[in-house]
Design a protein that fits this description.
- By secondary structure, this protein is of the alpha+beta class.
- About 45% of the residues lie in helices and about 15% in strands.
- It contains five helices and five strands.
- Strands 1-2-5-4-3 form a five-stranded mixed sheet, sandwiched between helices.
- The longest helix has 20 residues.
- The chain starts with a strand and ends with a helix.
């Protein structure tokens, strides 16, 4: 299966990112079945739509944009990681390689890990711990290898979401 391409960028996603988006998709489908007329106004539906817009439109326009730089928030050893902010407390973490025109989405936080300064459940604190434990891998090569195995999964997930929203 051919990987997803947007605006000349090849898009991959790490299993951690996909698991978060899949869980949110299940939640939105449940909301839709309970309230077909009003589910689009629910926070989970809006958050899923925001993630899809970031992943499939905004970030592939220019992943090097200064708005995605996170500075030293993850520590000086992780300044190569980018993040997209949305709805104040949510972050989508990713890396890109300009030479190969590849973007890899690594993780997006959820309700349990909202941005909250000095909290052990803060999105940056949690992601930094994940990086230190090696999942997702910090190495570009290992991250790319782990994500390239998920081509079918990302294609199915993004195609299903674009059909519904």
């Amino acid at each position: 299966m051919k990987p997803l391409e947007v605006n000349g960028w090849t898009i991959y996603a790490h299993p951690l990112f996909l698991a978060q988006v899949e869980a949110l998709t299940v939640k939105v489908r449940h909301l839709q079945s309970k309230d077909p007329a009003g589910y689009r106004n629910k926070a989970a539906t809006k958050r899923l739509a925001a993630i899809m817009k970031l992943a499939l439109h905004d970030i592939p326009q220019d992943p090097s944009s200064t708005q995605y730089r996170q500075g030293n928030t993850l520590g000086t050893e992780h300044t190569h990681w980018q993040r997209a902010k949305f709805y104040q407390q949510y972050r989508l973490f990713f890396r890109y390689d300009a030479a190969s025109k590849i973007i890899i989405y690594a993780w997006v936080n959820d309700d349990a890990t909202k941005r909250a300064y000095d909290s052990k459940h803060d999105a940056y604190t949690v992601f930094q711990k994940m990086l230190r434990s090696g999942n997702p891998p910090d190495s570009w090569k290992a991250l790319r290898e782990a994500s390239m195995r998920e081509v079918e999964r990302i294609d199915t997930l993004f195609a299903a979401d674009s059909d519904e929203h």
